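Section handout 9: paired folding examples.
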Amino acid sequence: MAVMSSLRNKTHIILYTLLGAFLALIVFEWGMNFTGFTGKANLAGKINGKPIPISQYDEVYKAVTENFRRSTPGAELTPESELGLQEQAWNTVVDQTLLEQQFEKFGIALQDQEVVEAFDSPTPPMVIRQNFADPATGAVDRKKLESARHDPRNKELWVQIEKIVRQELKVNKLISALQTLGHVTEPELGDIVSRQFSRFSASFIPVPLSFAGVDSQFPVKDEEITKYYDAHKELFRQVPSRKADFVFFPLIPSSKDSLAVRTELETVRAEFASAVSDSSFVKVQSDRPTGINKVYSRADFSPEAGSALFNSSNLNPGTIVGPIADRGEYRLIKIRQASSAAQPVARASHILLRFNPASRDDVQKVKELSMFIYKQLQAGIPFEVLAKKYSADPGSAINGGDVGWFSKERMVPAFSAAVFSARPGAIVGPVQTQFGLHIIKVTGFDQTALLCSEIVRNIRPSSETVESERRQAMAFQLNAKEKGFDKSAASAKLVVNKSGEFGRRTPIAQIGYSDKIAAFAFKAAEGDLSDVIETEKGFYLMRLTAKNDVGYRLLDKDLKAMITAELVREKKGASLEKKLGAMKGSGVTLEKIAAANASFHVVSADSIRWSDGFIPGYGVDRPLVEAMSGLTAGKISAPVKTTEGYALVLLRGKVYPAGLNLAREKAALAPQLLRAKQEQLFAEYFASLRKNAKIEDLRP
């Protein structure tokens, strides 16, 4: 029964989920009557004319919501997340219906015997492989499978699993009906194997687009923008959208609200200390009922809260510490045991310097800046002062570079390695990561671990605070109606924010999902003011500024700026390509080209990998490595595209790893490549189905 218990625990994920290995769809199999009702009031929508009963949509939404609750225990289902789950449920219904229509179109049906044979197949359906395969070998444990199938206690569950299997088999048949043109050729196999396993040696001169000149040298005309927009219109397809200006009255707990929560926890302190069952007490009293017998380090708290707990004079079993304020909540902690953790946690501050590793100028500038910062540190200027001035990490710069306490795995490897190999007080670096260069000050280590149970209370605004904000929002609304939105905002010193474009059921910039705001926006006329809209975060006053129901993004100021930037980039690329092409010639070498241009430098590398685009000592540049894979050794290439611009490349050679069996690798790759082609074909086919389907969303 252990296997079936495990399977039963996962059914909220897989029971209603069709896992077509390649299909990025989540499709629910309900065994429902898809004909449904015909009255519009009872419809969730229509798909290619087929009515979707609201009962079908509601059942899918119920399952999606239950999945959310199980996968994120303790998480609150906010109005914003609820709207997101509604969209997930609707998209699931749409995808399921489109699939059913394709099954009907291609006459795809399934016999019971096919299902039986699928269970006994060497490669059984995915739901079976996921739950009955040996993790070490990948082989299905037939004994456990048969035991589970014939256990009478699993009868109902197995009926549901068979539904999943039937759906997967039908999808596989649909794939087969579509893949008549799918095949793999010997040249394709040879090319991919060659690229996958080859290691290149090359020298190249990377040249950023900036070498072509400043943007003002590449003017863009209005007609060019319009031509680009018309030629790429499909890129700008979108659902009907709205734009709005808004002012926001946030619900921020007052000091009185915070004190009230603290007082509440103080009143249960004695009971918590004497509670026979921490589990029962925490579940009743805490906003986070999972906080039972947890092992905490300083990394699990803000620096201030961590100090209040770990610096406590009494950490003996049974001691109650708190209430401690920590990131918008109060924590009352009951210590069960204090010990030494296997791995320490560290605290550090950093100064982040961003740069482009492909730009010689950027590399030189950041080196000079890091040296200048070190000189200031040596002169006695505090690290915190320099972090606030120079660090490109705004989140920590405001705190003097402090990133708080962290475990080794919480930071990127290079950063962690530098910190955990240093001593407290040491300044290390510069350390390079994908984020840039870090100058790091190690401020401490701690190896204390506490086994605790805790009661957590979120600090929420009181009804008094809510009503105060509501009155302010209503007063602004009255003023805005009388004196105008902008004038009233200026008079009250309120910031007028812009929403950007949003759909009826898409998140709104700075706001998130809000069905109340969407309901106003899709009923209002341009210029209309909303009533006071109450959300979990606070109160909003909206002014509708634009409507777009044409199905494409309008060619407005923002889009024109985006297209202009792309056209400038294209023009600079063409100019740069021409300039670099003119530098080639008989007897010319990369070294001579670099010597004639002060901003150029030659990069040489071996063991360059096509598989991930990695160039040792340089970084990842997939377009550049892709270009290398097709070059002839010993000859300077024409200008090739890179991530940041263009490059001139001299491929010196290609080698295979010792002992590589090309024939064996081709044989192993052939079924994978065929499958990839089939996946792409089906994905494109299904995307086209969805794009061209007539989908009527009639949900209230």
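Moving on to protein 2 of 2.
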Amino acid sequence: MQSNFIKKKFSFIVVLLAVLSLTACNFNSSSSTSIFNTSSTSSFVDKPSITINNGNEIDLFVGQKVQLDVTLNRITGTIKYRSLNENICTIDDNGLISAVSEGRTTVIASVGGYSDSIAINVSENKSPIVNIVTPSPFQIYQYNLKLIEYEVLNYDGSVDVSSSHPDIVSVDEVYSNMIAISGLKIGSSTITVSLESGESDSIVVNVVEESIETLSISFLDDEIRVGSFTSLNVKIEPASFINRVSYNVLSGSDLIEFEGDSIYAIGSGEVQIQAECDGLKSNIATLNIYDFEIKVDDSVINVGDHERIRDSFYQGQLKNLKANIEDENIISVTFTQTVVDAFYVDALSVGTTSFYLYDDNGLISNTLEIEVIDGNPYENVDKEEFYSDYTRANSYTDAMFRSEYYLMSGSIALQDQEPTIAKNQPKASDGKLIHNSKTHYSNYGNTYTVYDSNGEEAFQVYYGAAYVSLEEVAAYIYAWGDVPINYNEGKSASPSLSPWGEYLRLNNSKFSGDVDSYPYEPVLPDISGCGGNLIYYEIDIGTTGTDCDPNYTPAIYNDGYYITRGAARIVYSRYYEDTKEPVSSEDRYVFYTYNHYNDFQEYLNYENGWGEMFGNITGGGVISSKNPNLCNPTPYVETVRMDLF
């Protein structure tokens, strides 16, 4: 028994030594990998790599192009390409190589720390060449049209393009370097470009069936009044399926009528529509239709406050109105009978909710959303964070909260010196531009609504708020004859020492209107010193500079550290010289000049409403010249004051 044990032990040792010997032949002796770990060989299989699949090297003639075919294995990222000698060949961001001149170089494709390279040989050639640049095979969806790029060198003759299966892929048009093809049915076809000299090149085109990736719909306006129109927005990918989309009215079909691409509301209630294409259904879009309109001046109110509901009754005087409130713990709606019947929203607790009004006859209003707050929400706000996700103030209350902590209420976008002018400016019968004399105040005179030239509400400005844009500052001054809260009367101040920082604006001071000392200035309407009774003031408007006056270098008005005042100003009528009283609305003028008083344009009291330019440069004079012989200011271009809306 003992001898057998010794023999078996000896045999095991021999086998073990043989295994070790074989292992030593296949592994470096310094490796720490165990020979008994059978999974160790996996590290040599399918490792991350980037591979150029165009062979060992590429031969090109000068002027030829070729597309690199690159494969990524277990790595992701954007492939970066470079040529070691761009005098010989270049390569763009998509891997397209262009041969420039004779020579040999290398192009490299890399992602992160992985790369591969290939040699490029470029030689001169005088014989004709035809080369299809678009990589083969090429894929096109059925019923779609695509372009194939090709090039022809050293050849002035005709080019023939053919399809091996024109019933699958048709050749629609041939240009100097492009071929337009259409995919007619599923299958493959070879497109061949041939020269009369015998040279040719081909590409395989595969036509595949296109499938819908996404389908969604939404209403252009998801809440409209009876008698109004809206439309559906359809988003479908690929877009070629748009003509195959159908619509199902799931509820409220008796409330709407389709008129072409528009939807007309004929009754109040809720409408739900769903789109469908090739069996794929979209989301359900909901449209709320109301009979009469309600609104509040402020949609943000403090706990304990109340806000009056203002209404427009389109169906006659409504009786027995009631309120449907989403969350009655946040607000209540009360009715009071004083001089006139009125509804009020009473703020009960912090939160956001919505409500609408309805009567016994089933007539309903639009839905309003109310936010109830407690205290100033901007008390501990971080300014950098506030401006990184900035939106304009949405109510008078919101604007006042912002002003308390020196925060903006209007647009903060940088603006060019020239004003944007409405495309369709209303004109009177005599051809003069209309100066809109209708003013729209609310919230006890603290909110001013600006409309566009079509009578649609454009934006609102709030008294005591901060503004810097030309449109908002002009509207603010027109509304109240005063300047926004972020304006300083002086002509010098340090933004770094002001709580308004880069939104500080300067120079609310008297405008001289002295045309004897400044002969390039035109005479403004009824201005004091030129036979009139109006005292005008001026303020800076902070644009990004001026390019029409060599005395002023284009620059940002306020960069947060230094103010470059520039040549842009608003000049406005402020008070009467004889009575010292503020001007009334019929004598309210607001003008804009961006070439330092040489030319002016009148603000016409609607969005992008700016009158015709008049003044020195308009008349062909020399800018800012003190020599009367070199100045030719044209007179004020009169407008017609009338209510537009």
